[in-house]
Amino acid sequence: MINSNYALQPHEVMGGFETTSRPSYIEATHWHEWLASAVDPEIITLNVVSVSGTVAYDYLFYGQNVPRRNDGRLRDGVLKKYHHIEGLSWWCNGVDPLHDYSPMQWGCMKPDRPRRDPNKVDKVIKYEHPLRVPTRAFFLAVPDDIWESVAARYDKPISDEDRALGFWYWVWQYNIPVVICEGAKKAGALLTLGYAAIALPGVNGGYRNPKDELGHPTGEKHLIPDLQHFATLGRKFTICFDHDTKPETIQRVNIAIAQTTKLLTKYGCQVLVTDWSYPEKGIDDLIVARGSAVAVDVISQALTLEQWQVKGYSRLSYEAALILNQRYLGELPIPKAAKLILLKSPKGTGKTESFAAIVAEAIANGQPVLLLSHRVQLAQAIADRLGIPYITEVRNSETGILFGFALCVDSLHPNGQARFNATNWKEPLVIIDESEQVIWHLLSANTEVKKHRVEVLNQLSQLFKNALAPGRGRVIVADADLSDLSAETVMGLAETKVTPWVVVNTWKGQPWNIYHYKQTTPVNWLAALEADIKAGGKPFIAVDCQKAKSKWGTKVLEARLKKQFPNLKILRIDSESIADPEHAAYGCIERLNKVLWDYDIVLASPSIGTGVSIDIRGHFTSVWGCFQGVAPENATRQALARVREDVPRHLWVARHGLGKIGNGAMNLKSLLASEHQCFKANLRLLQDMSLVISSDEININRTALNVWAKMACRINAGMINFRQTVLEELDNEGHNIIDVHDNKTLGTLKNEITAQTHETYDAECQEISAADTSHMTPAKYEALQQQRTKTQTERYIERKYKLQQRYGVEVTRELVKKDDAGYYPQLRLCYFLTIGREFVESRDRKLGEKMLASKSAWLPDFNGGQLGLVIHALEMLNLPNFIANDRELRGTDDDLVQMANNALSVKWQIKTVLGITLNDLDSPIVILRRLLKKIGLKLKYLRRDGTGDRQRIYRVVGGDDGRDEIFQNWLSRDAAPA
Known about the structure:
- By secondary structure, the chain is an alpha/beta fold.
- Helices cover 42% and strands 15% of the residues.
- The strands form nine sheets. Strands 17-23-18-22-21-19-20 form a seven-stranded parallel β-sheet, with helices on both faces. Strands 26-27-25-28-29-24-30 form a seven-stranded parallel β-sheet, sandwiched between helices. It has a five-stranded mixed β-sheet with strand order 11-10-14-15-16, with helices on both faces.
- A hairpin with a 5-residue loop joins strand 5 (95-96) and strand 6.
- Helix 20 (453-468) crosses helix 21, helix 27 packs across helix 28 (722-732) and helix 29 (747-770) crosses helix 32.
């Protein structure tokens, strides 16, 4: 029963509140429980009551559908089930916004002795709600001082009229931002901090999902009336649910957040989602453990739904079996029964070395070992450290292959150099170091793996099945940035669920001082670098570009620094130099710690990437990083960490990255939908060509596609705010970010580096155009392509021959430059849109027949390879008409206006198929410019019309760039008999 003694009891209040008194209708244990959740005593006093005895039934069984006997008494089954509530409980309800803010009849009860969950005997049901009554939300009664606190936070004064109508009416009337949480105590803690907090009884409590007795949907999902009442246009909602760690719980919460956000957004609300990396589960726990300031920061840094979902794709949510905090991992006590081992440990903590004992034991026991990587040089270096051979060392030795080897995933198929067949690998030990990057390479790279991606995925699927099957097989994946996606890939491809054995090393080590150059371009960064070298510094320079046309790539910077410092020894390490037998960097990756001592300046591209550890000390005085956003942000952080010694870092990073994946979306559903819709459209076009094909008979490997899409969302999000993302992640690693306020105008240096770029690039283009390809044949060209090592001369020959075969015209320096600038895909599209239109179907049909023969497809590659859909889209937009007959164009032309209206009505499809983002305010001329760019043409302004509103007049130009000769060559090739 409700405590009848209303005398106030003195009480020392914890958590920094002033001394207050506990009312006698609240038991001390209940009072302490709420105080322990950082709830203001006055909020507790207004909303909580302790109950016991049979009166407790009145709180839970007032509904009309409660099972009762004819005499009105509760049925025996109900009394037996709820007998426990006769003991002591607390009850909380709040006010009802749908009934003039009077006390709400609905609420929740928390018995001191809860009942067991009949479906989960190891769990109890902590909270009871009124039986067979629709759940509501909690709107706790708020004392005046808390109201003042909320008003101060949002700078909204409280009038006398407001006070008469009450706090929640004030919140509703003035569109005060609302925080949605789970549980009344959390709402009390947030109100205490000055937030208008509405609590739900569970994460799904914000909406209804109507179903019949069989569980079939009977209507659309919709907000509960309480939330709908507050879902007014423009209101800001922040969802602040618990920070869970169990994957199944996380998935359930994610679905609930997404659904609640979708429904609130329909009413024009802005919705953000909180996220934190602290171990505390609830926001009340966070406040108690870390203080109100941390909680305020968490709420102020809440993310949009897309940002929050993307952040989840970087999280490792599996519970750790072993948590370490040590500089080096050492030997790991992996249980014999562990089948999937997940290892997350910072860069430079000896992840690779920790595998050595495991590998040695496996080899000693005759267990085959396979180490997978995404770069040949990296695989060779790791294999050497683990004491196993790389595939080139054992492919002629049957014994060697039986013991295992290291291999690049590009060769993981029967036609690769390993002649790999996963069915022969019984109970293997599979190790994937730097797994996040290996998996992304597997799913997206344009290297050799693209030609065999479907088969490699099939082989990997069988390999994982063998490893996770009963027996001694196991899979170890490791990465400094390990996420659930690595585990999802392994278990999804294996079609097997196992409980991973997880090791997390929380060691952070000595934080770096990172000097951040905030300027728009890296010119000030370069000036500081050269000043440092002049002062005797020995820098290690990491960049994300290598090509000669890149102003901030390895080749241009090498040329610049050689001129400035002719007496210093400079080593350029990139994908070309490490594979060139005539270059000093040839084969240096596996012996870096010996080679680098000999050089004063080292320039490195991403070829020194994940898994490479530069451990020499006392040589490099600083690390300099210049990143344009060519590679994902985690690769940027990896590059800064290759040198393990704690020396100053100097960083310039672009505000926005240069690439996007798929349609560039951060939203998983949007990204996947674009691929699936393109696939269906391409299939329809193939069916129109009389190719008998159905999507039902094509395996599209949904596991791998989902992982690809999540990683793509992660990369797209990072590229949008590339600089911010890199700096945030470096800060999360514990480093000190020091902004360099250098606003000097360095026009001379800027001009010099531009001139150096032109000089270096012009020289390379000239070398390519002058290369001797007279001896080349298709067979020799294919052999040259397959060579692992190539001299610079061989690279020039290979490139020139490729251009000769591609265009069928003389290869000049200008053609090389145009090809580098993306000339070929533009020209190819223009050709198939115009004189080569009749050959589109036969071209696409060949790819369709290949897919049909294998009964499988990798959607991003297949969609990217089909041209028919793109051509069809450009024709639907009437582009051929606008480029014909030297026509003069005005923005008011009827057909041009109609084209623009059509394009704007299908903006999403235009973005998906053509990769063009349109805005509702784009004019017909702007839209036409973007379409023309797809085929390498542009608009030239001619003059203004002489009458009326004097419209601007344009003409399509750019077709006189030599494409006619190329088109005739292509036409002859395509028309020739097969």
